[in-house]
Amino acid sequence: MHWTQLLSDRRLGADRAERPQSRGWARSDFERDYDRLVFSPAFRRLQNKTQVFPLPGNIFVHNRLTHSLEVSCLGRSLGNIVGEVLSERYPSDRETPFRSGISAIVSAACLAHDMGNPPFGHSGERAISAYFGEGPGKRWEPLVRAEGGRWEDFLYFEGNANAFRLLTHQFRGRRPGGFALTYSTVASIVKYPYSSLLAGGKSKFGFFATEEETMKEVATELGLERRTASALSYARHPLVYLVEAADDICYQIMDIEDAAKLHILSREEAQGLLSAFFSEAELREVQQGLRHITDPNEQTAYLRSKVINLLVEEAAGIFLDAEREILAGTFSGSLIHHLEPRTKAAYEACSQTAYARIYRAREVVDVELAGHRIFTALLDQLLEAQLHPDYQYSRTLLSRVSSQYEMGQSSMYGRIQSTLDYISGMTDIYALDLYRRITGMNLPAV
Questions:
Q1: Using an 8 Å Cβ cutoff, are 199 and 152 in contact?
Q2: What residues pair up with 50 in beta bridges, in sequence order?
Q3: Which of 89, 119, 206, 378 fits as disulfide partner to 190, beta carbons 3.0 to 4.6 Å?
Q4: How far apart are CA 372 and CA 338, in angstroms?
């Protein structure tokens, strides 16, 4: 793969003869991607979607929106470091936008990376997979397979694949190319660039069967290396590694801070986990800064900021050292997997604590249990309504669905996908409210 082709400012859905519109403007086409995402309704809805903890009461913790903004900030920093070094590494390649392009692409892709996630955090993805794998949805498998549909798209439902669909699919009333982002930004969110046929028990893939042709178009434009001849699979776009690192750093470190605010971890535990990232000399310097801060939450925040800065610089260095392998498609694992021993040990300690103490906390488990019940009811009733659209109740229920979601398709695969499009776009609050209304638990005020 080659940087000159990988950093393409051509837009998905644009005519091949059409040139980017913003040449000479204050904004590059990659910066326009960022702005287009920020001003979209789908991005705004992230403010009412769970990140890990339930939507906040008296204590504010992260939701999908704040998480995405913070990931984007880290992505911009990673892109700045990498872009600056690559511009010096390839001084004769003046047409390739290393400095102006990489940070803008990565920050935009970071904004979009969670836009396809359903309500209730990762428990929402698990609830959908459970519905089709071991719940009432299993009854649709023979019908989907008989008509040639790809059941694995639903069995291993993945928010990353749904983000690719959201950003690229021409929903009813939308322009060709969906959000019509640049090819480079679109490719930089595809963390798992292969179809659900290769997902297996990992439950990770990058695009649905309906978006395979779009993925082929993106890969051809950017020169992504094809991996397998049968099921569609590609090497990652190199900038995916920076988007992934920004996400990994953000959620792992910010979850520790949020857990301390919610008293799931003590302040001493949280600060001990964060302090372990530093050498003795670095820790003495950090402690000098802490002497001027007396508020416990601010002390934790200061430590967190120092850890994030350390991880960003180290991840960027790993990327630059492995550039040749990344471009060849032979780099293995994430950037975080290649941290130096002390940093990696501290990161893994945070990860182990998060899985043992945070992600299994009662508040988080309660969200998962509620989400499972809500998704089962919504999927059941919306799919039954599409199978019997002439029933009076079906017409009433389907009238609530925006026309862009194209309910009432002829295939069972299409009916399921349009239902998932609708549900995935919901906020936590909207999904809960709709569940209460269709089950009779809540009535409109009279």
A1: yes
A2: 63
A3: 206
A4: 36
Average pLDDT over residues 253-260: 87
Write out the two tokens for 261: 């605010």
Q: Is 234 helix (H, G, I), strand (E, B) or coil?
A: strand
Q: Residue 109: exposed, middle, or buried by beta-carbon count in 10 A (0-12, 13-18, 19+)?
A: buried
In terms of Cα–Cα distance, which of 391, 377, 424 is closest to 137? Answer: 377
pLDDT computed for residue 310 by the predictor: 95
Residues in the chain: 446
Assess contact for 144 and 416: CB atoms under 8 A: yes
pLDDT band at 409 (very low <50, low <70, confident <90, very high): confident
Q: Kindly report whether the global pTM for this prediction surpasses the value 0.85.
A: yes
How far apart, in whole angstroms, are the C-alpha atoms of residue 125 and residue 120?
A: 8
Alpha carbons 178 and 166: distance in angstroms, whole number: 7
Give CA–CA dist 159/114, Å, rounded: 7
CA distances to 104, 165, 205, 261, 320 from 239, rounded to whole Å, are 11, 19, 17, 33, 11
Q: What phi and psi, each to the nearest 5 degrees, are found at residue 93?
A: -95, 70
Closest CA to 72 of 243, 198, 224, 190: 243
Greatest distance between any 2 Cα atoms in the chain: 73
Burial-class residue 446 by CB neighbours within 10 Å (0-12, 13-18, 19+): exposed
SS3 264: coil
Give how far Cα 92 sits from Cα of 4, 8, 95, 321, 328, Å. Answer: 12, 18, 9, 20, 21
Tell me the Cα Rg of the chain.
23
Q: How far apart are CA 7 and CA 2, in angstroms?
A: 9
- Which of 35, 119, 125 is CA-nearest to residue 426? 119
In tens, the pLDDT along 73-124 reads: 999 999 999 999 998 898 877 778 888 899 999 999 999 998 988 888 778 8
Instruction: Check if the beta carbon of residue 43 is closer than 8 Å to that of residue 130.
Output: no
What gap in Å lies between CA 270 and CA 248, rounded to an integer?
18
DSSP 148: T
Residue 361 near residue 117 (C-beta atoms within 8 A): no
Burial class of residue 170 (count of CB atoms within 10 Å of its CB; 0-12, 13-18, 19+): middle
Query: Whole-angstrom Cα distance, residue 199 to residue 236?
Result: 15
372, 119 Cβ separation under 8 angstroms: no
